[in-house]
Amino acid sequence: MKPAVRDDEALQDLLRGRLVIIQKKSGYRFSLDPLLLASFVELKNHDRVIDLGAGSGVLPLVLAHRQAERRASFVGLEIQPDLADMAARSVRANGLTETIEIAPGDIRDVRRLFAADSFHVVVSNPPYIPAGQGRVNPNDQRAQARHEISVTLADVTRAARYLVRSKGRAYFIYPSKRLTDLLALCREQRLEPQRLRLVHPRRDEDAALVMLEARRDGKPGLRVCAPLYVHEAEGGYSAEAARILGETDGPGD
Fold first, then answer.
1. pTM for the full model?
2. Contact, 122 vs 151, CB < 8 A?
3. 179 domain-assigned
4. Is residue 252 situated within a structural domain?
């Protein structure tokens, strides 16, 4: 299906053209983070999945494509109406309207939007810069995606706890320097950390990101996986990162 693309938007291939996604020419553009998280998420047959802060919809699109055999269904919750509209058009362009629903709405309002315990899996790439810290991007879309302006990490973990059923899983990707915050807030919401993977820009550099799987009402016991190195020392993606990214034509900044 030919997508409706507006003057300030561009159509980009994902995964060697297996998917397409609509992005702003300037403004919010997805980063590597949701693509990396998609490689970490493990779905089961017929899982119902919600993405908290769906942005342009890249995470549910990639999961629906790469784990199609699971026949999962997805909801992408996005507070910014223009991004939600853009994500919905990307879903239609990929013929996935029966699999993915984009829902405009606020993470802080999930109790009104959804029934409790109504999802098997929650995924999220939350805003990672605390309010009042760092330079706020003058572009409102980018600012809300990166800074805790509309929603905080505590809001996200609280929503995840409400939405995911007992023994269900929650997956997050977050800056490694805020790992303590992520672990503490997950435990506070009875989302027991189960599996963790650090993401390093290169082998000789400190970790920049962490991917975490937590299980609601799970038993204590954290498995730390082998690290993921995104780039080789001489430049270019590592072999694993290249497979994960599907040699996409370069995500946004």
1. 0.91
2. no
3. yes
4. no
The range of the structural domain enclosing residue 190 comes to 9-245
Contact predicate 53/151, CB 8 Å:
yes
- What is the tally of structural domains in the chain? 1
Is 173 part of a structural domain of the chain? yes
Which CATH number characterizes residue 63's domain?
3.40.50.150
pLDDT tens for 103-152 read: 999 999 999 999 999 999 999 999 986 654 444 443 344 434 443 457 99
Token pair listed for 7: 């003057």
CB 199 within 8 A of CB 228: yes
What sign does the CA torsion over 45, 50, 56, 59 have? negative
165: in domain: yes
**Tens-digit pLDDT profile for residues 177-221:** 999 999 999 999 999 999 999 999 999 999 999 999 999 999 999
CA distance 4 to 25: 15
CA distance 35 to 55: 13
Rounded distance between C-alpha atoms, residue 18 and residue 56, angstroms: 17
